[in-house]
Design goal:
By secondary structure, this protein is α+β, with helices and mostly antiparallel strands. It has one domain. The chain is built from seven helices and four strands, in the order H-H-H-H-H-H-H-E-E-E-E. It has a four-stranded antiparallel sheet. The longest helix is centred in the N-terminal third of the chain and has 39 residues.
Length: 193
């Protein structure tokens, strides 16, 4: 009887440990699957793993916030021409952000701008470099941190592959039994802004 109880306890502990390990690794497995879907242009998998409307909304909000912060760093008394430039920039920026997000935050946009044949990857090839062997090709080296914020949210802070000044915070949310990319914030704009 004692031997049976000991075996039963071992099975329960092992099962519990496997469940905890599976849960802990599942958001990383989802991120890996999403990365593979982007590289393969697999729209069905991306549609399953990404809440496009939520990602678009969160990115828009964070980009506009970063642009506002950049505007606060402008000189107090710009010249007339510079003042006109700032006014035009402030007026046009939200429309440009909306246009870019409508193009890039979709299965086709993710594949085009983050896939193996992105404009930046093709430019690297044209320069005689192999984008797959460049240091920035290793996703693990671009991750600054990855952690649970609670039982249903997992965040990954990652540096952009082509602009190390551009940093994103991606949040995966557990919805039912599936982790989905639900929120992306731009933490810094990078060189191109």
């Amino acid at each position: 009887m004692l031997r049976f109880a000991s075996r039963a306890l071992n099975v329960i502990v092992l099962t519990g440990a496997l469940l905890v390990a599976g849960y802990t690794l599942s958001p990383l497995a989802t991120a890996y699957a999403l990365n593979g879907a982007i590289k393969a242009g697999d729209a069905a998998t991306m549609n399953t793993l990404v809440d496009w409307a939520s990602v678009r909304t969160s990115l828009r909000s964070s980009i506009l916030q970063r642009l506002d912060e950049k505007a606060l760093a402008r000189p107090d008394n710009p010249g007339w021409l510079q003042s006109v430039k700032y006014t035009l920039t402030d007026a046009v920026s939200p429309y440009m952000v909306d246009h870019l997000l409508s193009q890039r935050v979709s299965p086709e946009g993710f594949t085009e701008y983050m896939g193996p044949h992105s404009p930046k990857a093709e430019a690297a090839r044209a320069a005689g470099l192999d984008p797959d062997t460049m240091p920035s090709a290793n996703v693990m080296k671009r991750i600054r941190r990855a952690n649970f914020t609670d039982l249903t949210h997992f965040q990954i802070e990652i540096v952009d592959r082509w602009d190390d000044g551009k940093v994103f915070l991606a949040t995966l949310q557990l919805q039912g039994v599936l982790w989905r990319l639900a929120n992306v914030q731009m933490l810094s704009l990078g060189e191109g802004a």
